[in-house]
């Protein structure tokens, strides 16, 4: 079965998740304490053997919980095979392709709902059920003379249905033999029994449990088809040395100590998983203790199997795992790096590797083994942060492992990492947010409607295409020049005024602008773009930090024409805001902060107010004014908010407050950028000519 919709109510912090659709491989994204883990654990309530603790019920919903309400509810889609299994057992019931499983706060068992399909609740004597089978047997026994009947043992038919066919056949055979012995002188009894027993030989495989079609169907699904939710949260670590003496004790149920060796500790379960993937049998291993050559051959074969099963999920250079037997009955796990040219390096014990490496290795071993075991086939796997502490490249390896599992298992997992998001289809990507006032979690199927903070990992993941465009040299070589700017405000102004001026003589139409995250990221971002074939230019303000960045750019082989400082009339200016006439910029400031300024007795900030502070640029002057009013709760001057106001007015064609002076000053910036691009092209062309081979005279 595959879960297609679910709803969790009154469970811990979740008042009501609403009806949520999910795919075969679904990621839950949310900030810490948003309820991701609660959702995963809530789904385990749909397991048959799960119980609801009173402590898990939502305290804020105590009134609602006085009545019976559904805590966990799932709509499941049956596979073709499962539908056929039901059809074979219940030929008179319409084909069942989906069903609802739910659990309430008042009943201990999970319950089933088959929707519009009508299934009889009436007792059915013709139903091939254990109850009817037992009733027929006991009716036959009642017809036997008392002196024979009292000697027959019928306890088997008075108890629960047998667990398997072997137990059933054994008891039926024993009961039949008793009848033949006790009724040897009663041919009519023997004859009647043989008529009954003719249909018993293959009866077990067809027997159902329940006296009505509905109860028999529910019991059949519970026994054979009920989905299993398996929750993974504890990813155990494997170390380098395994004490086989202690493991064997544990394997045989005799262990009293931990499986320890020197300082490291391996839980028996993790060792069991390692052996499972390697197909290493501990009893088979013991057989070769006295034959070193056979032992080496046996361990080599196991090592190769283990390596082959781990490498598909291992990103970067492949590794080889070598299992080695050492004195003291110690099995060592030795790892080597295998490089593309075939060389082998860094051979050593697993416990000498970095923590991240050991965690990755252990996760793949444990998870791959546990999911490959037959008992987890077709289970719905719930994973809580399966790639924590991993490098992004290794996270992608875990992601590949999950993708492969999605064929045999439905996988739902919680993550914070953009590298663990690889399907943006609604239902395969769900966002969880916590309403702090009501302290309840909300799940977004249409995840783009969640808050920006929650969406951050998704936005980073969606930007992977941008990263790939940076490192694809073919894209860089054939692209327009890239202009790296320090802030988002720079980007907004350049794009907005390029449209606003509508001047074909200077327009870069459209500008290819890339905003750095902050000043510290300008240098590496420019180098990345330049190294991947882009014609790269950097636009900087005139701060001391920007001058240091310029020096570093020159040291990294950028020409001086590629670094552009803000300037106006041949003089340096502090920021892009200084291209706006002061009165134009102050109009936007006064409009944005109108209420606050009036409250403090200002009708408007004036040009004189700003210039009187004596700072170099308008932003520094305004920051100084705001700092003077720090005690008046003015907070911090937000120049980006002013940027948004101006650019929005340009977009709405409501920017009449921008004067010709501002327009002319921005034109000088575009001319400066265009001139630097031409200069750089000339330098590149001259360099190519100088490097070209000279014609022989």
What does this structure look like?
This protein has 697 residues and is of the alpha/beta class. The protein is built from 26 helices and 24 strands. The strands form 6 sheets. Strands 1, 2, 3, 5, 6 and 7 form a 6-stranded antiparallel beta sheet that branches. A 6-stranded mixed beta sheet has the order 8-15-16-4-17-18, with helices on both faces. Strands 9, 12, 13 and 14 form a 4-stranded antiparallel beta sheet that branches. Strand 6 (98-104) and strand 7 form a beta hairpin. Helix 10 crosses helix 12, helix 10 crosses helix 13 and helix 21 crosses helix 25. The chain is elongated. It starts with a strand and ends in a 6-residue tail after the last helix.
Short descriptors:
26 helices; 6-stranded antiparallel sheet; alpha/beta; 6-stranded mixed sheet; 16% strand; 697 residues; elongated
In short:
This protein is an alpha/beta fold.
Number of strands: 24
Helix content bin: 40-55%
The parts where pLDDT drops under 50 for at least 5 residues are: 259-266
Average pLDDT reading: 84
Tell me the structural class.
alpha/beta
Main β-sheet, in a few words?
6 strands, antiparallel
Radius of gyration: 37 Å
**Morphology:** elongated
Strand fraction: 15-25%
Tally of alpha and pi helices: 26
Report, as a whole number of angstroms, the end-to-end distance: 82 Å
Assembly state of the chains shown: single chain
